[in-house]
Every structure is written in C-alpha cells, then in structure tokens.
C-alpha cells in the first residue's frame, strides 16, 4: 500500500468503492487525508462503513469543502451523461482525478511505463513487467491489470511501474506523465463512454500528453488511427517515436515478418527472435504485443539478449488464450478477456477446429469485426444476453446452439467435439462480450470456465502453470 500524503489534512472524496476505490481510500487515509466516500451500490457503501470510512451522498455543501474527487474509472466522466458527482465537482471547481494520478504524485522519483490500446494491452503490460523483472529490475505491474495502482509497492528512483491504462483511466489524468508510453492499436470500443470514436481516440492519445521531450513514444502503425497519431507525434517533434508493425518492414522501428521479430531502430534490420517458437504468444496479434514489449524494454535500457531470454520464458496471461487442460484429446482455452469482437477474432485466427463459446453483454458493433474470421468455427455455443442476436448474426455461417449459460455451453461443446472426433479440436471461450450480465467481471467468467472444465469426466492432461 502506498500512502498518499499530498492531501494531508484536507478533505478528499472517493467515489466508486470497488477494489481500486477502497485501495484509494485506504492510501489517502494513511497519508492523513480526511476521506469521505460514496458508491451508488448499497453493499459497497456498507463495506466502506465497516472499514471505518465516512460515507455521504454527494451534495453541493459537502463538495464546497472538498479538495479533490477521486473517481473510479468505471464511473461516467462525460458520456453518456456525467455522474452527478462529476457535475457537482465541476460546479465547485473541484478537480476530478483517478488513482493513477495519485500514484504518480506519491512516487515522483520512480520511472513509469504506460501501455494502452484497444486490444493486447494486458498481455503487453505483463510481458514488459516479466522482461524487466527477469532482467533484475525492481518492477511493479498494475493499473487496469492486477493490483490497484495504490496497492503496489513503494519505490524510489530505482523502481519502475509498468501500468496498463484504459481509456477511462487516461481521461482521469491531470499532471501524471510517462517516461515510456505505448499505444498498441485502436479499434472501436467503449464508444458510449466517450461520445463516439473521436472521443475514444482522444482519450487513448492522452498517454502521450507529456511536454517533456525525453518521453519515448512507441506506436503501432497497423491501423489508420494509430498511424495518424504516429505521424503527428513524429512531425517536427524532438521526442523519440518508435513505430511497430506486424504488416511488414518499417524504417526505424520494430516489426515482424513471417513470425521473425526484427529491430530496425538503428537502421540495420537485425533479426531478434522467431516468435513462432514462443508457445505463450500465439498468433499475429501476440506478435504485435511482443514487438511493443520488446521496443518498450529496449527503451528502458534492457539488453537485447536479456529480452529474448525473458520472452522465451514468458508464462502467458490468465484469461488471455490460457490453455486450461486437454480432456480426451480436446483442448480447452480460456480467453475470457476477449470482451469485444476484434479480440475474439484474433483468438479464432490462431486455431483450426474451434468449438466456440461466445456471448454476454454485447458491445457496439457486436460480431461485425469477426467477418472473415469465422472459418475455424465448427460450432458456436452462445450464452448471455447477446445469445439470440449472435445466433441471428451467425445463421448460415456456422453451426449454432443457443446454450444460455456457461455450464450448458461447456458440456455441449465438449460433447460436440467428442462426437466429431476432429484432430486439434479446441473448445474456446472467447466471448466477444462484456461479462456483467452473468458474472461480476471477465476474471469471474474465466474462473467459472476453468472450474467447469476441471469437473468434466475423461482422461486429461492439465496445462502447466
């Protein structure tokens, strides 16, 4: 836990009392702030009361004496409509910030690597953390991944925080900046929370907002919007901007050709590593993550040989194409973190005979990003709120069963794969949806999948941890 002392003896509101919100409240209290808290959920308020925090419904008279509102990322800041507390704060001239901002203010001597993107940011963040740790650096990994920012260890100048950053978290930055900032890619996501694509792109771009020319920017250039950001950052700017690509050679960048990771930052186009041999980074989308991770680690001063050795030992990320077990020759893969269509498409591209479990709370665009990626699907088993809409979308394109719930889908997929007897059969949970209709989060959904697989009858080979 990192104490936040910058608000000592001042009143601070913490709004949103989930895991990160409660960690923020504790950190502020440890630093001497007078914390009051609020959450629209009664159970969350009760938890805060049990921990001894004052809980008050936001009101103009209370906001008048408040120095800052620390907002949890899940609470609307601007769209579809601002949460009432945001409107009250603005009327009172009270800044609205997030826990990443508090971390940066509380640990100013540490180094910061910020990583964002529509897809791949969790894998890239965990990969960079693994490389730095493997190379002997003092590193903590968190933010939108794993531990809340203020639940990380305290560091001095020798420490590095590697932070996954969602668009929501980026919107809540005030003064915080990064030494190395990574944008992997941009595709439509969370458009309701940003008022459309322009707002979403603007939020992602905030990762590069530092005016310090020492900032090293690493930018994927394989989608139009990210390429435009790269061009703009490179135009007449003294800062170092490194492009990454998996679509071909790119001068001065890090890129992948036929699975070979190549470093052209010094103009020599030097082969680094054959990524096809890295089992826990399967598929072209993970090659993009590897290129971003390699570029970030090099920018952080890690030697090339050390990076290669670390990539080869990367254990993979839970809930992201995580092999759970093989039962009677059928492999079960947990990709619960694939909460949009593009992420699911990337997973489908990695396999040949897929019994696909999908559905949940659909995002804008639904299954549109999967056009051209459906050929591996032998049968789709659909769950959650989106099940009927997805069934209509897939009609005539692949075999479809409306399973409704995850337990029904797992058993039906196992039965279908067993009956078909195809080689390399994969039961893939890659929902292309948020989880909140049936589960508290994607981790809970993935954990439920793993429990269901462990209970299946048959001879099995468990995945190595």
Task: Outline the structure in words.
- The protein is an alpha/beta fold and 465 residues long.
- It has 3 domains: 11-97, Rossmann fold (3-Layer(aba) Sandwich), CATH 3.40.50.720; 100-312, UDP-N-acetylmuramoyl-L-alanine:D-glutamate ligase, CATH 3.40.1190; 322-462, Mur ligase, C-terminal domain (Protein-Tyrosine Phosphatase, Chain A), CATH 3.90.190.
- Helices cover 33% and strands 23% of the residues.
- It has helices at 19-30, 42-50, 60-63, 84-92, 99-106, 121-134, 167-171, 191-194, 197-205, 224-234, 284-299, 304-312, 341-348, 387-394, 406-420, 442-454, and strands at 11-15, 34-38, 54-55, 68-71, 96-97, 111-116, 138-143, 159-164, 180-183, 216-220, 240-245, 254-257, 260-263, 270-274, 322-327, 330-334, 353-359, 361-362, 377-383, 400-404, 425-429, 433-434, 460-462.
- The chain has a 9-stranded mixed β-sheet, sandwiched between helices. A 7-stranded mixed β-sheet has the order 20-19-17-21-16-15-23, with helices on both faces. Strands 3-2-1-4-5 form a 5-stranded parallel β-sheet.
- α6 packs across α12 and α15 crosses α16 (442-454).
- The longest helix is centred in the middle third of the chain and has 16 residues, at 284-299.
- It is globular, with a radius of gyration of 23 Å.
- The mean pLDDT is 94.
């Amino acid at each position: 836990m990192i104490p936040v002392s910058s608000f000592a003896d001042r009143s601070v509101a913490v709004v949103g009392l989930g895991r990160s919100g409660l960690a923020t409240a504790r950190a502020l209290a440890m630093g001497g702030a007078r914390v009051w808290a609020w959450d629209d959920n009664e159970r969350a308020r009760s938890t805060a009361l049990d921990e001894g925090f004052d809980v008050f419904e936001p009101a103009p008279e209370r906001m008048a004496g408040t120095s800052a509102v620390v907002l949890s990322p899940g609470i609307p800041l601007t769209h579809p409509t601002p949460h009432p507390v945001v409107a009250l704060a603005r009327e009172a001239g009270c800044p609205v910030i997030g826990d990443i901002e508090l971390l940066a203010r509380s640990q100013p001597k540490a180094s910061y690597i910020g990583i964002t993107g529509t897809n791949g940011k969790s894998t890239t963040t965990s990969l960079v953390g693994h490389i730095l740790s493997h190379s002997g650096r003092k590193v903590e990994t968190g933010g939108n991944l794993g531990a809340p920012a203020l639940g990380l260890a305290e560091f001095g100048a020798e420490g590095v925080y590697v932070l996954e950053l969602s668009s929501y978290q980026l919107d809540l930055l005030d003064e915080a900046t990064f030494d190395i900032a990574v944008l992997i890619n941009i595709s439509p996501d969370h458009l309701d929370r940003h008022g459309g694509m322009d707002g979403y792109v603007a939020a992602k771009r905030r990762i590069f907002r530092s005016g310090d020319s020492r900032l090293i920017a690493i930018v994927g250039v394989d989608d139009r919007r990210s390429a435009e950001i790269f061009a703009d950052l490179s135009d007449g700017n003294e800062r170092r901007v490194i492009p990454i690509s998996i679509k071909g050679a790119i001068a001065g960048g890090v890129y992948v050709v036929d699975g070979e990771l190549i470093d052209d930052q010094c103009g020599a186009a030097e082969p680094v590593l054959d990524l096809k041999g890295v089992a826990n980074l399967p598929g072209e989308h993970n090659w993009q993550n590897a290129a971003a991770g390699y570029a970030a680690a090099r920018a952080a001063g890690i030697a090339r040989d050390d990076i290669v050795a670390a990539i080869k030992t990367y254990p993979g990320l839970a809930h992201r194409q995580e092999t759970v077990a093989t039962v009677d020759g059928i492999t079960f893969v947990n990709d619960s973190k694939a909460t949009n269509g593009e992420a699911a498409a990337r997973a489908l591209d990695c396999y040949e005979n897929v019994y696909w479990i999908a559905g949940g709370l659909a995002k804008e665009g639904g299954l549109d990003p999967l056009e051209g990626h459906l050929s591996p699907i032998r049968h789709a088993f659909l769950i959650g709120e989106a099940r009927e809409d997805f069934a209509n979308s897939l009609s005539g394109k692949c075999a479809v069963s409306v399973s409704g719930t995850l337990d029904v889908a797992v058993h039906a997929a196992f039965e279908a794969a067993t009956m078909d007897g195809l080689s390399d059969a994969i039961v893939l949970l890659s929902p292309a949806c948020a989880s909140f209709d049936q589960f508290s989060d994607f981790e809970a959904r993935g954990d439920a999948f793993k429990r269901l697989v462990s209970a299946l009858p048959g001879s099995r080979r468990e995945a190595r941890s």
